[in-house]
Design brief:
The strands form two sheets. The chain has an eight-stranded parallel β-barrel with strand order 1-2-3-4-5-6-7-8, surrounded by five helices. Strands 9-10 form a two-stranded antiparallel ribbon. Helix 3 packs parallel to helix 4. It has helices spanning about 15-20, 40-50, 70-85, 105-115, 130-140, 160-170, 185-195, 235-245; strands at about 5-10, 25-30, 55-60, 90-95, 120, 145-150, 175-180, 200, 210, 230. It is an alpha/beta fold. Helix 7 (about 185-195) links the parallel strand 7 (about 175-180) and strand 8 (about 200).
Length: about 260
């Protein structure tokens, strides 16, 4: 049976260490969480691997935007998987779609060939698929270990109905991990209603103010909606509160959904 698990979604050394101190069982290491996450640098991975005993899965996503990748982007992803495997990553977090909103089984299989011996999570590309149940079966066929999903909604609490049905349909074949909007106020609800025992959270409670005293007005280095003078990081106390709840859960929710071994 799966034991309850909490994964910290982190895009910096500071956030990774805060999540580990807070009780993370596993990290998803990425870059640029403000745009949904992209592949982290090798330098960041080496720092976190050096100082962290928790399992580390690495997001393999070459850019912001959709999950329809060119041949060259797929080559980049394959090389990144191979390199992170050499560097000691425990797993990778991947996803590729077809133009029609289905999992691209052929291209995912290519990525998984590079990831043999590693944990593989299908990321929230799953939430952009046309038919989540067909995507579930394809993920199982490919040998994916975990699906990270909000239940195809804006947040996991909003998607709790689909999360419940997905968990029931797994029949112990794959792990459903709830992500997006997961926090201390809704973990128990998701567990009791949907039978989920794996949770994914960045545990952020607000932006820290930049240390810059001089601030240039009217200039943006990226998306104009994002301030250059706010630093978003995992909050250790928030993560600890989430981890304590997750680690107190039983292996069954009120839905009676059986968890994977």
């Amino acid at each position: 049976m799966n034991r309850p698990l909490i994964e910290g979604c982190v895009d910096s050394y500071a956030s990774a260490m805060a999540a580990v101190r807070g009780g993370a069982d596993r990290l998803e290491l990425c870059a640029n969480l403000s745009i949904g996450g992209t592949t982290p640098s090798h330098a960041l991975f080496r720092q976190v691997r050096r100082d962290c005993e928790a399992r580390i899965n690495v997001l393999i996503r070459p850019r912001f935007g959709d999950f329809l990748y060119t041949t060259e982007e797929l080559e980049e992803m394959e090389e990144e998987i191979a390199r992170f495997k050499e560097l000691g990553a425990d797993g990778v977090v991947i996803g590729v779609l077809t133009p029609d909103g289905e999992l691209d089984g052929g291209r995912l299989a290519r990525l998984m060939e590079r990831a043999v011996g590693m944990e593989v999570t299908l990321h929230r590309a799953f939430d952009m698929t046309r038919d989540p149940f067909a995507a579930l079966e394809e993920a199982v066929r490919l040998g994916v270990m975990t699906i990270l999903t909000s239940g195809q909604a804006g947040s996991a609490p909003e998607g709790k109905e689909l999360l419940r049905e997905l968990t029931a349909r797994t029949a112990g074949r794959i792990d459903i991990m709830a992500g997006a909007g997961v926090n201390r106020t809704n973990i128990r609800l998701l567990h009791e209603y949907a039978g989920v025992t794996s949770f994914h959270t960045s545990a952020r409670r607000g932006a820290a103010d930049s240390g810059m005293r001089y601030r240039k007005k009217g200039v943006s280095m990226g998306l104009p909606s994002l301030s250059e003078y706010e630093i978003w990081r995992t909050d250790e106390e928030e993560f600890r509160a989430c981890a304590q709840i997750v680690h107190s859960l039983t292996e069954y929710g009120d839905s009676g959904a059986r968890r994977a071994k």
